[in-house]
Amino acid sequence: MKGLHKFLDEKIAPPFKEGGKLRKFWPMYDALETFAFVPGHTTHKGSHVRDGIDLKRTMFLVIVALIPCLLFGIYNIGFQYDAILTEAGRIDWLGESRHATWLEMFIYGAPMVLPMVIVSYAVGLGIEILFGIINGHSINEGFLVSGMLIPLVMPVDCPLWMVAVGTAFAVVIAKEVFGGTGMNILNVALTARAFMFFAYPTKMSGNNVWFHTGYSDSLTAAASPNVIDTYTGATPLGLLVDTADGATLVEVITNKGGGFDFSLWNSFMGFIPGSIGSTSVLMCLIGAAILIATGIGSWRIMAWAIVGGALMGGFFNYLGSLEAFADNLYLDIPWYHQLCLGGFAFGVVFMATDPVSAAQTTRGKMWYGLLIGILAILIRTANPAYPEGIMLAILFMNVMAPTIDHYVIEGNIKKRMKRAKLAIA
Amino acid sequence: MSEVKDIVVKQPKESLFSKKNKKLLSDPLNDANPITVQVLGICSALAITVQVEQALVMSASVLFVMIGGNVIVSMLRNVIPSRIRIIVQLVIVASLVIIVDQVLKAYLPDVAEKLSVFVGLIITNCIIMGRLEAYALGNKVWPSFLDAIGNAMGYAWILVVVAVVREIFGSGKLMGFLLFGESVGSPDELGAIYKMGYFNNNMMILPPMALIVVGIIIWVQRSKNQKLIEEN
Fold first, then answer.
1. Which residues of A touch B204 (CB under 8 A)?
2. Which residues does chain B have within 8 Å of residue A161's beta carbon, measured at their own beta carbons?
3. Are B202 and A199 within 8 A, CB to CB?
4. Do A302 and A185 fall within a single domain?
């Protein structure tokens, strides 16, 4: 390791240093060096304590926490494809009359997901480098996490150029405009998701974007026999909209609507169609455990968001039991099932806890989390056109976070002033 | 009154397009742009920039109302009692807007329908009231006339730029002309790039994107013209 550092320092660094030929591109070199080695920065003023773990290493731990979701997402694509084949009455994996093994499912999904990850990183880091060079600052490492989050919240069927456009929009408008990493008001990955949701609704929502329906044989339009044309299958939240009157919720969910079983178990494990990385609550919980154990994610936000979601879900269950709302199936989804559907768990664990855009104060985190949970279920249930309730809820609360912090601090000051006056009197 | 007249120093007669007058025309286009620098008239910039045609008609309407309003108020500036000046200005602007509204309805019914309430809302366009208050009330007719043209053009070019961006990326058209071929229909009818998987950006049609495009114009303008950057 020492040798590598010496090599970097002596052979690679000089042209990038002050007065060197490639001074302009210093940010690129700096990014590489600080990625490989903890930089030797020390604090200059005041009595700050500098933590040994810097931003790059923090970000890296979040990526580690995301890996279970990523791997499961890749596997799930193959799993869903196998389910579609079964649904179509063709149990023929690779020409043999059998189901795919888990490894084959995984191998099937990888060529769909990995290009998205590569595109998202290439575009995002490209823009970061560009801004770093123009503004003469070092490259911000914040994108390490956003670049992984963006593909994980995309539908499988999303074209790569859309991922590129969404990423570019989010990095420039949500981040660089406000001054780069640490300055953004909105969560970058969610901004990309929201932008694409409104910009390309036909590719980002609806009934036929959540599946990959087979690879074409060649670049010609002729599809291979393995491609199932225009397969339509609803997500659980979309399914309820299309359900015929008179069906009960239990029938809808377990009736393998569209060939899928949206039982509580499957929703928890993640064997349901949805955005690539956000279907499995179990994988999100593993990620949450890593984030909480390393002290990176705030357990308060996660816990209060779940409380909020449960409260709102429970309230809607109560409404659904009333005569007046008897025909609204949405209200009948049990609250614990609500928490397992859609991207709720993923959003709460990885997006709501984004330390930059979340509330900073301890009591602020409570309100912030609680309101995210409440709003997410409220939006999803009250307006079926926006199944991505969690996305909109987190973005809205991102905007509100500074206000929450302001009132928490004001309240604290008031309380202390009272105490001070008492002491004087 | 006669005493006041004596005090007034007779100024040398200014040429019609003196440097000062030219500045009245050119400043609002850049350094004192009503939308990007003074941040006035944003509402209409968001609402009617989905298509270039609407933006052009709106700009022309504002140009007309602005010139009329500025000239009339400037002519009446010495007889308008200052306590009721806002009411007087409103009456003048409202009359002009009604003329515009009627003309549009008679000759451009399609566009008028698309612009709907926003023609009527020219009355409340902050740029117009702003210029009447800030300029026409205190200046002679000719400079007021130039000021009106300058500000209306400053408003217009932002509107048109935003509309061009929104129409091209939002609906794949320019002035209603299909740039890339049909975007909807059976695969055979689609334009070449739609066949390759391109989609129109629906977000461009929604008002928030207009705000973002205006924001980007402000960003570009201020990075070129650093003195516009506010201190805070």
1. 199
2. 197-198
3. yes
4. no
Q: Which residue has the higher pLDDT, B193 or A71?
A: A71
The answer to whether residues A190 and A74 belong to one domain is: yes
CB contact under 8 A, B212 and A173: yes
When divided into structural domains, chain B yields a total of: 1
Per-residue pLDDT of chain B (232 residues; tens, 9 = 90+): 444 555 555 566 667 777 787 888 888 887 888 888 888 888 888 888 888 988 999 999 999 999 999 999 999 989 999 899 899 999 999 999 999 999 999 998 888 888 878 888 888 888 888 888 888 888 889 999 999 999 999 999 999 999 999 998 888 888 777 877 777 767 777 777 777 778 888 888 888 888 999 999 988 888 888 777 777 6
Q: Which pLDDT belongs to residue B164?
A: 92
Q: Is B28 within a domain?
A: no
Q: How many domains does chain A have?
A: 2
Rounded-to-integer distance, Cα A387 and Cα A205, Å: 9
Interhelix angle A299-321/A362-382, rounded to 10 degrees, is 30
SS (H, E, C) chain B: CHHHHHHCCCCCCCCCCCHHHHHHHHHHHCCCCCCCCCCCCHHHHHHCCCCHHHHHHHHHHHHHHHHHHHHHHHHHCCCCCHHHHHHHHHHHHHHHHHHHHHHHHHHCHHHHHHHCHHHHHHHHCHHHHHHHHHCHHHCCHHHHHHHHHHHHHHHHHHHHHHHHHHHHHHHCEECCEECCCECCCCCCCECHHHHCCCCCCHHHHCHHHHHHHHHHHHHHHHHHCHHHCCCC
In a domain, A312, yes or no: yes
Measured CA to CA, the distance from residue B73 to residue B87 in angstroms comes to: 12
From the CA of B166, how many Å to the nearest CA of chain A? 12
| Segments in A351-388 forming alpha helices (H) | 362-382
Q: For residue A221, which amino acid is it?
A: A
Nearest to A200 among B199, B212, B219 (CB): B199
Classify residue A256: in a domain, yes or no: no
| Residue in chain A nearest B170 by alpha carbon | A199
Residue B66's domain comprises 36-213
C-alpha distance from A245 to closest chain B C-alpha (Å): 32
- Whether B201 and A203 lie within 8 Å, measured CB to CB: no
Does residue A303 share a domain with residue A172?
no
Answer whether B204 sits within 8 Å of A199, measured CB to CB: yes
Q: Is B220 an interface residue toward A (CB < 8 Å)?
A: no
Whether residue A203 and residue B199 make contact (CB cut-off 8 A), yes or no, is yes
- CB–CB contact A199 B201 (8 Å): yes
* Within-domain flag for B31: no
What burial letters (b/e) apply to A165-192, b meaning 16+ CB within 10 Å? bbbbbbbbbbbbbeebbeebbbbbbbbb
Within 10 angstroms of residue B130's Cβ, the number of other Cβ atoms is 15
Using CA atoms, how far residue A309 sits from A213, A287, A410, B149, in Å, is 33, 19, 28, 56
Q: Which of A204, A237, A267 is the last residue of a domain?
A: A204
For residue A376, the enclosing domain spans 297-424
Residue in the block written with tokens 């902050």: B126
Q: Does residue A287 sit within a domain?
A: no
Report chain A's terminal Cα–Cα distance, integer Å: 64
In a domain, B29, yes or no: no
Residues B199, A202: C-beta atoms closer than 8 Å: yes
CB atoms within 10 A of CB B216: 15
Chain A residues inside the 8 Å CB shell of B215? 177
Residue at A233 is within a domain: no
